[in-house]
Amino acid sequence: MIPFSVLDLAPVTQGSTPAVALNNSLDLAQHAEQWGYKRHWVAEHHNMAGIASSATAVLIGHIAGGTSTIRVGSGGIMLPNHAPLVIAEQFGTLASLYPGRIDLGLGRAPGTDQLTAHALRRNLTGTVDDFPRDVIELQHYLNDPEEGQQVIATPGAGTQVPIWILGSSLFGAQLAAALGLPYAFASHFAPQELMNAIKIYRERFKPSAQLQAPYVMAGFNICIADTDEEGIFLRSSALQSMLHLRRGMPIRLPPPLENFDTDLTPQEQAMLNTINQCSAVGSVQTASSKMREFIEKTGVDELMCVCSVFDHDKRLESFRLAVEASRGQ
Question: Which of 19, 98, 107, 187 is the most exposed place for a label (fewest CB within 10 A)?
Fold first, then answer.
C-alpha cells in the first residue's frame, strides 16, 4: 500500500465560522494520525469565504501542536505572494518547534484573484522566471549558512525543511526535476496534464542532496460513504462550491443537494467530468476500485486525498473509509 495523506482546505460551511473550520482541521489531523495517514497539508488561498487556511503557517503550527507524529505542511505556500526570507523564517520556526515533521510545498499561482493578489503584493511586476529564482533563494536560507553570508534566516538556517514543488502544468514538473525535489500534482482539480507531467518529471529528474530518486504525489478526490448514492450526494457540496468558484462567485461550502447538476451548462458539466477523472466517490468497494485504477495508471508514490463534506463527522468518516478502501488496492 502506498502512503496516503490529507490535503485540507479548512472548509468554512454555510452557517458556520472560520473558527469552527480551523478547529475541525485540527480534529481531522488528529484522526488522520490515528488512521495512519503520512502527512496533513493545508493550502494558501485568499479572499475566499469558504477556505480558512489563508494564514497557512499559523494553521500548520496549530495542527502540529495538537498532533505528535503526522507530518504537517503546506500544499502549498504561494511563493510569489511572499519574500523567500519570510517563508524561511516561518518554516524554520515551525521546524524548530516540531523537528522532523514539517513540509514546505510551494506553488507559483497567486491562490486568489488578481485584485487580491495586488493587495497581497502591492505590485504584479514579477515574471514566470521569478519563481525558480525564489525557490533557490529559499533553499539557500534553509541550508547551513555559508562563510560571509550576510542575510541569515533565524530560525531557518540549517533546518533543511523539505521543499516540494506543486503544479498543475508541465512547468512545475520541469522545475522539480531540475532541482531534484519531490513533485505534487494538483490532479484533484486540474488533471489534464497529469500523465505528461509525471513522464517529464521522471525522465528529467536530477538527484539532489534532498532527494536521490523522483517522488510523485497526486491529489485525489474522495467522498466515501456506506453506499454509492450517499457518497454522490455528499460530494455535491464540493462540486457546488467549485462551480461557484469557476463562475467568479466563491461561496462557503453549501449543504449537499440532490440532483444539483440538472441545470448545468454543457461546459460546466464537462468541467465536472474532467475533475471526476481523479476521484473515488461512493461505497468502500467502489472507492477501492477507483483508487487501484488511478494508482496503477499513474504509478504515483503517494496519494493526497482531498475531501470537503458539509457535515464534519461524515467528512471524518470518508477519510476513515478511505483507509479501509486502500486495503483493497
Answer: 19
C-alpha–C-alpha distance, residues 319 and 305, integer Å:
8
Q: How far apart are CA 36 and CA 2, in angstroms?
A: 11
At 145-190, the pLDDT tens digits run: 999 999 999 999 999 999 999 999 999 999 999 999 999 999 999 9
Q: 302 pairs with which residues across the strands? A: 217
Q: Do 45 and 115 form a contact (C-beta atoms < 8 A)?
A: no
Query: Which CATH superfamily includes the segment(s) 4-326?
Result: Luciferase-like domain (3.20.20.30)
Q: Residue holding cell 488533471?
A: 191
Residue 241: how many other CB atoms lie within 10 Å: 25
